[in-house]
Amino acid sequence: MSDSQAAADGVSEPSVGQWAATAWRDALAAFQQMPGVLGIAALASFVIHLVAFPLFMFESHSLGGNVASTLALLLDSFVMTPAAIAVHRFVLLGECATKYRLEPSEPRFRRFFFFVFMINLVTSVPVTLAILADTYIPGKLGNGVALLFVAMVVVGMILVLRSLLLFPAVAVDAPGVAWTNALQDTKGHTLHMLVIVFLTGIPLVIGLKLFSGALYYVLSSLGALTLSRFVAAMVQTIEALLTAVLYAGLASRMFAAFGDRLKAPPDQPAAA
């Protein structure tokens, strides 16, 4: 889609607030139209969070805990993949999925989860290496090496941001799916995307992070550890599902707005 066409369609130049509002509207519509699909994904995610609760809450700052929590997050992403694909196709194609399809043998599923896996590696491996450096390399050298890996995490997060368009592209079987095309399509949009992603997630952070933290500590102080674990896992599930649905919708809108190379077949140039 060219800039002039996109502007005429009203998808390339909305304000930051309009981007965020549209993402939340899309998420609400997805919940209304596909409650069964998203509900099953939430149930699977809840089981994972309930079992892996200690990893998320207590052990993430140790090497073993960091690796284990990363594996748990990958498993959570695995069960969320059908829901995310369904939301992408709902926003871009108007398709309402009627069944939750966890089909790892399906090429679309494998391709989608491959990018999820790679993005998790990009962000988690430097964190793990930073923990190793801080633990096993003494003094200022260890601190310097750890800081280097933290810088790698920042670079990785930028790469993740610029890779967002890959997911809707894979979900709708776009012909130009490739890392290079995603990076080219997001060139010049990175700062704008960062602000949009941040603003879109503010209600999620305020509504769940603060509430869940306060609720967990209140229940813990009352000695209701089992109940607090159950409630925390439930809140984490809501957060995981909302994040998947919300940002799937947002990425889909961004793909529609400026995913020109991702939409173009490999042997054809992107729209001017």
Instruction: Give a quick account of the main beta sheet: strands, pairing sense, barrel closure.
Output: none
Distance between the termini: 8 Å
- Estimated structural class: mainly alpha
Strand content: under 5%
List the helices and strands and how they pair.
Blueprint: H1 3-9, H2 16-33, H3 35-51, H4 53-57, H5 63-93, H6 107-136, H7 139-162, H8 166-171, H9 179-185, H10 190-221, H11 225-258, H12 260-263
Compact overview of the structure:
With 272 residues, this protein is an all-alpha fold. It has helices spanning 3-9, 16-33, 35-51, 53-57, 63-93, 107-136, 139-162, 166-171, 179-185, 190-221, 225-258, 260-263.
Describe the protein in words.
With 272 residues, this protein is mainly α. It has one domain. Helices cover 79% and strands 0% of the residues. It contains twelve helices and no strands. α2 (16-33) crosses α11 and α5 packs across α11 (225-258). The protein starts with a helix and ends in a 9-residue tail after the last helix. Mean pLDDT is 80; it is low at 1-12.
